[in-house]
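Board work, copied verbatim: P22 coat-protein 5 family protein
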Amino acid sequence: MVAKASLAILENELTMANAVYRGYEGEFDKKINGYEVGDTITIRKPTDFTVRSTITASAQDVTEAKTTIQVNSIAGVDFAFTSQQLTQNIGELSERVIRPAMIQIANQIDVATMNLYKDIPQWVGTPGTLVQSFAGFAKGAQNLDQRSVPQDSRSAILAPADFWALAGSQTALYSQAINNKSYREGEIGKIGGINTFMSQNAPTFTTGPMGGTPLVNGASQNTTYDTTGANTQTLITDGWTAAAAARVVKGDVFTIAGVYDVNPVTKATLPILKQFVVVSNGSSDGSGNLTLTIAPQIITSGAFQTVSAAPADNAAMTFVGTANTGYTNNLFFHKNAFALCTVPMVKPPGAVDCSRQSKNGLSVRVIPFYDGTNDKSTWRLDVLYGVKTIDPRLAVRVSGT
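↓ predict structure ↓
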């Protein structure tokens, strides 16, 4: 009863994690006794193709990249019931004990899922500005549309300040169906086909120190598609402040002069510069050189083309935001951009009574153990999970305008 109640409350309390893909749990169903911390599955990523415009057939190899998801995170809460408390009905226990515990667990899982934002290279709007109008909100939707992100299963997670600023802007609309909910209930609902939610876990990203005038050091730094699924590469740069620690940090976003984005379906050049994200922290040497690890790869042709052209030597690099500044990152995404896996945990051989409950891609394990001296039962409640960015193209970080 406790395990079932815990699972139902967990599903209800998730925000970001409820909007991402949770279908990979099927990869785990071959392990009968459950899973331990560190277990890993390998999954295939979607492939791409080019379209021919002639009558002559030209077969393409099916290139399926692989990636892994590791269930390496535990969210657990422990609490004690007296025998007297256990005589209460499950509704009372759920409200007084189980619900507060599951809210904490849901919050931890949501934080872990939201923190995947650092994998996303797309960032629109003016950092530090609230999303307080439809025009500001539409920047995120427009970016998804320009890049042919599927229009179904889109969600937006807004920080409280952005959410309430946007809700406030709706109260002035001449539509009772919209402004009544915004004013009386604080609801925004679906905007432009995007389900919109508020989360206190919307992250704040602090940009790197930067410094200098960073330039691409060497032409033709394009590459071919990485079938391992990492989709990262190195980029040799110079012009940085010399011998400075952590010039860039993971999550920094930048563009390169003359390097434009392309539509992933048609490969047509878009009227926006391609954005790249720094994958790991980097420091400049004594001459101001810095080799970055970035995503996505710079691919100039073929089914996996990402850019209009390779960067030229000495092409200027422009970073989003001001150095050493914290910015709220609202996140718009299609559910397939990210994945959450929660799996049934091992039933320990010494556990006399253990329950595992799974539903809709979520799994909870509950184990009680009894203290006969004090007539008290201690209960441990665990969720084993892993999160992963599956397709960064399907998301965008959004600031206001």
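Residues 208-324 form a domain with the Elongation Factor Tu (Ef-tu); domain 3 fold (CATH 2.40.30.240).
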